[in-house]
């Protein structure tokens, strides 16, 4: 009996060892197979991403002319829900052109000039269907640097596109208030100012606006200066780094804020009146997260402020 048990145990161990060896061979085979499959299937993922190429990036706008820097001034009229604007755009012309083609939507162009030379009304053409503004030039625009100047008018809408307005009830008083905001992604910066509104066209943007004196105005960059003007105050923001047009932001109203700092970066949570303290947790969490990523990547946050 004992002999039979020993034989049975020996047989079970032998079978188990054989099974284990077989399983090990199968797992090894699977690993080899998966290793080969991954090397064939994901070679592109393992390699570095191709650097950005302006010339190879697809788009609808001609690329002979590149905007380098915009200087934009916007004056909203919140009684009539319209705004007036003016801009100068520094251009780099890569090959001679006889016309300028950029984006504009629901804007009326009232004046246009190139290198301080006024263009006639007949030279200004807007294609509403294609959302294009074409400026016919009297002669070829030569290689090099040039300056485009435009004056225009637009609408403040309620649809959350371009420059829009919203009503809300103020905390505490219950009064109905109004504030302004922008939504430019993906292709609605062209509703706010004429521009090369495709992501490949990257430029610096300097925004100036006129708002009511008791309003807070917010944009991508810190306020550079403020001064009293007719109808309120003029707020000038610092120029942005080179970026796509849809990344621009403008918000204004009777707003509150709380703030802190991580290194040289100002962090703010901006709310309507009476609600700033509700953003305290978001402010503290943002400071911790920003510090974590600064340390993790070894590169500090590149902008002077971070608003939310």
CATH topology of the largest domain: Immunoglobulin-like
Average residue pLDDT = 87
- CATH homologous superfamily classification of the largest domain: tricorn interacting facor f3 domain
How far is the N terminus from the C terminus? 81 Å
Number of domains: 3
Report the CATH architecture of the largest domain.
Sandwich
Helix fraction, binned, reads 10-25%
- Strand order in space, largest sheet: 5-4-8-2-1-11-14-13
Order of helices and strands: HHEEEEEEEEEEEEEEEEEHE
Question: How would you describe what is shown here?
Answer:
This protein has helices at 2-41, 43-46, 280-297; strands at 65-77, 82-93, 97-103, 107-114, 117-118, 124-127, 132-141, 144-155, 162-169, 176-183, 204-211, 216-219, 223-229, 232-237, 250-253, 255-262, 265-272, 305-307. It has 3 helices and 18 strands. The radius of gyration is 30 Å and the shape is globular. It has 308 residues and is an alpha+beta fold. The strands form 5 sheets. The chain has an 8-stranded mixed β-sheet with strand order 5-4-8-2-1-11-14-13, with no helix packed on it. It folds into 3 domains: 2-46; 65-250, Immunoglobulin-like; 254-308. The longest helix has 40 residues, at 2-41.
Quick structural summary:
Helix content is 20%, strand content 43%. By secondary structure, the protein is of the alpha+beta class. The N and C termini lie far apart (81 Å).
Structural descriptors:
single chain, 308 residues, alpha+beta, Immunoglobulin-like, eight-stranded mixed sheet, three-stranded antiparallel sheet, 3 helices, 18 strands, 20% helix, 43% strand, disordered N terminus
């Amino acid at each position: 009996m004992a002999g039979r048990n020993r034989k049975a145990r020996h047989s079970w161990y032998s079978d188990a060892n054989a099974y284990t060896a077989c399983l090990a061979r199968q797992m090894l085979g699977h690993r080899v197979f998966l290793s080969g499959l991954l090397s064939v299937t994901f070679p592109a993922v393992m390699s570095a991403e191709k650097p950005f190429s302006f010339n190879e990036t697809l788009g609808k706008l001609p690329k002979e002319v590149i905007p380098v820097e915009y200087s934009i001034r916007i004056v909203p009229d919140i009684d009539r829900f319209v705004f007036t604007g003016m801009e100068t755009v520094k251009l780099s012309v890569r090959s001679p052109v006889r016309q300028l083609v950029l984006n504009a939507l629901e804007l009326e162009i009232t004046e246009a000039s190139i290198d301080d030379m006024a263009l006639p009304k007949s030279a200004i053409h807007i294609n509403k269907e294609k959302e294009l503004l074409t400026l016919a030039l009297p002669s070829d625009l030569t290689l090099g640097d040039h300056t485009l100047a435009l004056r225009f008018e637009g609408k403040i809408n309620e649809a959350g596109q371009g420059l829009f307005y919203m009503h809300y009830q103020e905390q505490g008083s219950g009064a109905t208030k109004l504030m302004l905001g922008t939504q430019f992604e993906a292709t609605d910066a062209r509703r706010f100012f004429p521009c090369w509104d495709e992501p490949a066209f990257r430029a610096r943007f300097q925004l100036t606006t006129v708002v009511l004196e008791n309003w807070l105005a917010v944009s991508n960059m810190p306020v550079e200066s403020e001064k009293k003007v007719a109808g309120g105050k003029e707020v000038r923001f610092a120029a942005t780094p080179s970026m796509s047009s849809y990344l621009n932001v403008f918000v204004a109203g009777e707003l509150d804020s709380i703030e802190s700092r991580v290194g040289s970066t100002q962090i703010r949570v901006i709310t309507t009146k009476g609600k700033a303290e509700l953003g305290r947790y978001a402010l503290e969490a943002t400071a911790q997260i920003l510090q974590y990523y600064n340390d993790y990547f070894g590169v500090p946050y590149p902008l002077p402020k971070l608003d939310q």
